Amino acid sequence: FLKKEILHWLNIVIKYDTGDKMKFELVSDHKILTEFYLDCGLEIENGWEKSMNPIKSLAVFEDGKIICAATLSNRFNRTILDYIGVIPSMQRQGIGKSIFQEIAKGCGEIYLIARNAGFFRALGFSEIQDNDLMSECSGCPQYNLKCFPKAMKRG
Q1: Mind listing the pLDDT tens digit for each residue in 103-114?
Q2: Could you give the residue ranges of the DSSP H alpha helices within the chain?
Q3: pLDDT tens digits, 41-88
Q4: In angstroms, what CA-CA distances link 110 with 64, 79, 83, 114?
Q5: How far apart are CA 152 and CA 114, in angstroms?
Q6: Tell me, what DSSP letter sits at residue 143?
């Protein structure tokens, strides 16, 4: 038992229980997060952990695999929800909402760029005009052709 706990610490994965059935884990292994976010269809670049300045990533594991994850970063002197994903077979079950509520604890204002603004409106986000945030999308070849992102804020 002790060896297993030490291995978790060596992998920099810290478990804690939220009191319900889901256990959220702080994760600093950006390689597994990158693979997960790509599998969820999110636009993500290799090396994002260096340019995005992540401050916290949470995940829920089932049978050793991530079923949902979220990452907060600090850019433009703001807390930004950079990534949130749930595996397709687990979507529409409240898991995305649960992980967002957990990662947002203790945060004031949270900003994001949303491709699915409806999901975030349900979490209390409102659309805003923000040139700093939108500047990250302006170089994307899909911008305003296939992807119509919205800058949003909560808090």
Answers
A1: 999 899 999 998
A2: 2-10, 30-39, 48-51, 95-104, 117-122, 131-134
A3: 887 765 566 556 778 999 999 888 899 999 998 888 889 999 999 998
A4: 30, 5, 12, 12
A5: 7
A6: B
